[in-house]
Amino acid sequence: MSAGFHRGTSLGQDPFYKSKMKKLKKSLNFPPIYKEKVDMKKVRLAVLKPWISHRVTEMLGFPDEIVIDLIFNLLEEKQFPKPKEMHIQVMGFLERNAKGFMEELWEMLVSANNHPTGIPKEILEAKKKEILARRAEKKRVEDKLAAKQKDLDLEEKDKPRDRDRDRDHDRDRDRDRDRDRDRDRERNRRRGGRWDDRRGRDRDRERDRDRYRDRDADRDANSDKDNSSDGKSSSDRERSRSRDRR
Q1: pLDDT tens-digit profile of 67-123?
Q2: Is the terminal CB of the chain with fewer CB neighbours within 10 Å at N or C?
Q3: 99-116 burial, b if ≥16 CB within 10 A, otherwise e?
Q4: CA 175, 176, 181: angle at the middle one, nearest 5?
Q5: Is the pTM of this model over 0.70?
Q6: CB 80 within 8 A of CB 92
């Protein structure tokens, strides 16, 4: 397919082409919106081009630059494009989707033609929704960051209180530990004191027994001495009496 066909110049001058186009126009059922004329000088086509590319890609399932460029050329070559002729030319590429695409496209062009900005109302509404969605998302992020910052500020504010609470807790724990240690020390001291008293009493009793034992031993020894000395004196006296009698 020649570039001249894309621009619609050489074939438009061909009588056979004109006759075939005329027959197709009569045989096809075109949407009523095609009756509306569009002045492309009032339309900001640059705003429409992304929408055209997106819709063609959706219908074909892939981005076809040839079809997209063809539609751009058909809209740019004339101040007042003819929708029925455009419809017939894109049929070979879009096939059953041609009618739906051309009807949407022409509604967009009519809306842009009637709007002071030259932009279709649908695109303006979509842009507004996009802006509102961005603002809402921005606000959501800002609110989330503000809440997070608030939590951080509260944490920073609570840190001295937490440190004081931890310090008091440590002080109470140390006090309890010291109290338990003193209690254990006193308990051990008392146990140790009773044990020392018992040991002391046992030692005293042992010393008393030893003292009594030594005393008894001394008494027995003294008694033996006394007995032996008394026995010797008696015998001496007896012998002395015997001599005196003789």
Answers
A1: 999 999 999 999 999 999 999 999 989 999 999 999 999 999 999 999 999 999 999
A2: C
A3: bebbbbbbbbbbbbbebe
A4: 100
A5: no
A6: no
